[in-house]
Every structure is written in C-alpha cells, then in structure tokens.
Design brief:
Oligomer: single chain
Structural class: mainly alpha
Helix content: over 70%
Order of helices and strands: HHHHHHHHH
Largest sheet: none
Strand content: under 5%
Number of strands: 0
Number of helices: 9
CATH class of the largest domain: Mainly Alpha
Radius of gyration: 18 Å
CATH architecture of the largest domain: Orthogonal Bundle
Length: 182
C-alpha cells in the first residue's frame, strides 16, 4: 500500500489524479459508508453523505498537511459531513432531539438493510438515546473498533476525554438494558 504522502501527491498531480481518486474511493468506500451509516442510520442518507464526503476530500486535498494520517483526515471529513447532515435534517423537520431519536430508531427497524435480532435492536435503541458525543464515541469504539488514538485524531479530542465518554456511554447503555429487562 502506498504511503499517505504518495497518495496525496498522486491526487494533486493532474496526470494521476483520476486514477488516484478512484483508488482512494475503492480503499475507503466500505469503511466510510459503515461509519457514516452508524451516524445517520438511513441507507440512502448514508449514500448521500458518502458522496458529499468524497467531493469534499477531492476539493480540499490540497489542504491536507500530513499532520495526521490520511485515514484520520478523511474520517474527520466524513464525521463532520454526517453530523452536519443530521443537524440540517433536524432543522428542516423542526423536531426535537427525543422525537428525532425515536424517528431514527423507527426508521432503522423498518430498514430492509437492517437484519438485527432482538438483542441488537435493544442495543441500538439504547445507543440512540445517548447524548450525541457519547453516541458517536460509542459507535466508533464498539462497532468500528477504532483505537482511542485514531478517534482522537478524527475527532480532535483527547484520549482521556474519549475514554470518559465511552465509559459513560457503556454505563448508560447497561442501565437502559437492565431497566428494559425488568
């Protein structure tokens, strides 16, 4: 696999730009889709956000300074695009957080691409009720199995703060699942 600086150089060179961008899409499409889908939930929304992400990457690759890994930079763009999409969707619909969480969860259960069993459904319901920051950290750590250091680069947050957010998220999920069982 090519080093980040080689990939960026190819993306910036008009002679190799198209091929390099197709390679970048091929490399990142699946993990980025999963990451975005875990945030926006809906398949069609995830496809839209993924497309917007790649457009932003293409437009802003000149600004990549190499201070973080290319992976982290692209994931940060994807995360920001997904969070912006959610905020805009909430604003357009005019619904509050609680109603938004409920609608998102109902859409997930109705989604033909979701094949979770009862336990997975309960877990996702509990995750959906978390505050946005904890929800994002939990999804990245639990579902995507990212290391805290990677998450720190992507989110621009300290490892300690991420560990605390994850710990609080796990505790809230455990409490929710325990309450629902009783």
């Amino acid at each position: 696999m090519l080093e980040d600086r080689e990939i960026v150089a190819k993306l910036l060179d008009p002679a190799t730009q198209d091929v390099a961008f197709r390679e970048l899409i091929s490399e990142y499409k699946r993990p980025l889709y999963s990451h975005i889908r875990s945030i926006v939930i809906d398949h069609d929304d995830a496809d839209d956000v993924l497309q917007n992400t790649f457009v932003k990457v293409f437009q802003h690759v000149k600004g990549f300074k190499g201070e973080s890994r290319l992976f982290s930079w692209v994931y940060r763009i994807a995360t920001n695009e997904a969070l912006t999409f959610i905020r805009q969707k909430k604003r357009k619909t005019g619904i509050g957080d609680e109603a938004s969480h409920e609608r998102t969860f109902q859409n997930l259960k109705a989604d033909t691409y979701f094949d979770g069993d009862e336990i997975q459904t309960k877990l996702l319901e509990a995750v959906e009720k978390l505050p946005d920051k904890q929800k994002l950290v939990f999804r990245m750590k639990y579902f995507e199995e990212l290391k805290y250091e990677e998450m720190s680069e992507i989110l621009g947050t300290s490892v300690g703060a991420l560990k605390a957010s994850y710990h609080h998220a796990v505790k809230k999920i455990e409490d929710y699942v325990t309450r629902e069982r009783n």
